[in-house]
Amino acid sequence: MNARFMFVFVVFALILAACGSATPTAAPTSMSEPTAMPEPTTAPTEAPVSKTIVDIAAEDGRFTTLVAAVQAAGLAETLSSEGPFTVFAPTDDAFAALPEGTLDSLLLPENKQQLTDILLYHVVPGKVMAADVVGMDGQMADTALEGKQIDIKVDMGSVYLNENTNVIITDIEASNGVIHVIDSVLLPTSEEAGMGELDIVDTAINDGRFTTLVAAVQAAELVDTLKGEGPFTVFAPTDDAFAALPEGTLDTLLLPENKQQLTDILLYHVVPGQVMAADVAGLTSATTVLGKDATIKVQDGKVFLNDNVEIIITDVETSNGVIHVIDSVLLPPQ
Q: What CATH class has 53-182?
């Protein structure tokens, strides 16, 4: 065995001996505490919203009618300003659900002020987030339509404005406020929309949904009566309601020889005095100017006259009474 090999062998043997005689290290008596992650020096923040309420509505795709109305009313610049504003935004479907002809009428230049008032009725000054709206259950909120408010109600976790307009999407933030989406158009009463000085006839003419009713009133020579001091309550059938009559019925009624029959039908839609919706719902019948009664029934929160004629819009106030809109024509009992 040469010297080099002998040296390596001795060193290897000494290492093995040292390892075998070493005392094992005792196990720790307890787990050591984990080292905490350092706290971030600043909280992460989202990038600020850079688009205005008008920009977001225009790009969204669900609010084309609202955007067109805002532009027609000349409110685009206002709703693009610093604000902040809270906008309860009706969808295109909400506008489409209005009685036929209503929107077309509102978009006419001569009705710009009425359109403006309706749109301002959808705007609340300040940035009111969903949590704040929920906290206003049973309260009223001031709108941008001067001196006018909307009612807020929370029911089964859903938020309703003016009893039956549902807030369906919340907290779409913009650089100048917030948008909450609603499923129907908020309509202030005619007095709130700047029409309180108009009488029943002029209100019906300006509305655009009652062209047939107005023509019938003129044919029956009842214009002066319904422009009188009153007050009157008129259950007003829409143009669609008259169109639903059997074919030829309206043409026949408008013939001069049938003037008395037409007059009787129209007077059957009029009740003396100003009877508001809350009062109607508490009645079982109402005596009309014709002297014949119309029955009143409340079912599933809806009010029906003569069992199947539904009141679809209430409390359109005028200078000489109130209009309630109905979905079909009332025919007096024989």
A: mainly beta
